[in-house]
């Protein structure tokens, strides 16, 4: 495993900001997103997202806005600990499609309204809150660990007057989200860039999932953030305390916190060195934000993003992702830890197809 860890001194961050990494307005960089041309499987004109069952279609919303220093920031949520999948993790607003006629934008906007209360209707937003959300672009499909095709929809808050943002009444749905915050998009460039606005630790690991190359990234931010937008500071955090989590003991003698951690690292915890509360943005969310940061700041408008080819191979040659219920093979891959002789993608794909995918996603 190749690992790269960057942990800048927290005291050095104000100096970086003062002298400027690029403290100019970044709104012009949105053109890089608008001009990005998604590349789909087998040179198709349409994403594999439209070929998998409705129950396997998901969409997330990358909602960008300008921060205090003119930097692009992205809104993130912490999933409720009550959810069945990835409880307590930091994620982008989003969820599953409800019907075959629902578009990616409709899924992402509907789920964002359900989770954090930002209306699907631009007319409503403009009339009542003084801003609209511009639809910039949609990235190709990514493969989630639970074998869904996830399409990230990228939008920007066009604010008429910043004072109007105080009219924005974000209401967290306690069954979906427990907290909301924002982070600078530029910080997700690591490991391409060492520059950091607010991230106190960033790691990038090269691993394998089911025998195929995979990126495992993590970006850590302080919860007590003086650069946070004022309209986000006003929102109550609905997260359970660590003591409350420990009090929820299940019948199999595992505490609630242990059950949550079975899905991976929790999105909220205390830093081992400083004891400060931090958010940990990792996994698929981190990979998606890293990729869109590349498009924005490195102008990677021709780069192939997502896992369209992998999803297509799983669907066409592996006979998977055809039904709502996860197959026995999918469950094995979901639980895979990439140990020697463990069940992998090579067990469901023809050898030539597996080797082709290894080359496409090579380390």
From TrEMBL:
Residues 55-205 form the Nudix hydrolase domain. Its cofactor is Mn(2+); Mg(2+). The keyword Transferase does not apply. The keyword Hydrolase applies. Keywords: Hydrolase, Magnesium, Manganese, Metal-binding. One of its GO terms (biological process) is coenzyme A catabolic process. This is Nudix hydrolase domain-containing protein. One of its GO terms (molecular function) is coenzyme A diphosphatase activity.
């Amino acid at each position: 495993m190749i690992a790269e860890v960057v942990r800048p001194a927290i005291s050095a961050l104000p100096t970086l900001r003062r002298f400027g990494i690029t403290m100019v307005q970044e709104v012009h960089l949105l053109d890089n997103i608008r001009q990005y041309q998604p590349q789909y499987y087998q040179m198709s004109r349409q994403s594999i997202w439209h070929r998998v069952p409705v129950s396997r279609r998901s969409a997330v919303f990358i909602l960008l806005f300008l921060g205090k220093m003119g930097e692009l920031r992205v809104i993130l949520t912490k999933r409720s600990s009550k959810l069945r999948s990835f409880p307590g993790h930091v994620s982008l607003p989003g969820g599953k499609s409800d019907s075959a006629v629902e578009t990616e934008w409709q899924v992402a906007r509907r789920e964002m309204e359900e989770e954090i209360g930002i209306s699907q209707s631009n007319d409503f937003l403009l009339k009542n809150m003084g801003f609209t959300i511009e639809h910039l672009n949609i990235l190709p499909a990514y493969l989630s660990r639970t074998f869904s095709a996830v399409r990230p929809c990228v939008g920007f808050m066009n604010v008429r007057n910043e004072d109007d943002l105080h009219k924005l009444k974000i209401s967290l749905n306690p069954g979906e989200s427990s907290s909301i915050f924002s982070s600078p998009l530029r910080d997700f460039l690591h490991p391409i860039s060492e520059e950091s606005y607010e991230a106190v630790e960033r790691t990038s690991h090269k691993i394998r999932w089911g025998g195929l190359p995979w990126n495992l990234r993590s970006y850590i931010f302080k919860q007590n953030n003086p650069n946070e937008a004022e309209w986000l500071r006003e929102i109550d955090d609905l997260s359970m305390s660590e003591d409350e989590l420990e009090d929820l003991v299940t019948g199999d003698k595992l505490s609630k916190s242990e059950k949550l951690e079975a899905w991976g690292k929790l999105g909220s915890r205390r830093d081992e060195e400083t004891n400060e509360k931090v958010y940990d943005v990792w996994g698929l969310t981190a990979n998606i934000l890293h990729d869109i940061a590349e498009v924005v700041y490195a102008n990677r408008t021709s780069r192939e993003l997502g896992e369209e080819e992998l999803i297509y191979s799983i669907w066409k040659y592996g006979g998977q992702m055809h039904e709502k219920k996860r197959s026995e093979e999918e469950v094995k891959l979901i639980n895979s830890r990439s140990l020697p002789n463990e069940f992998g993608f090579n067990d469901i794909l023809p050898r030539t197809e597996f080797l082709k995918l290894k080359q496409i996603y090579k380390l």
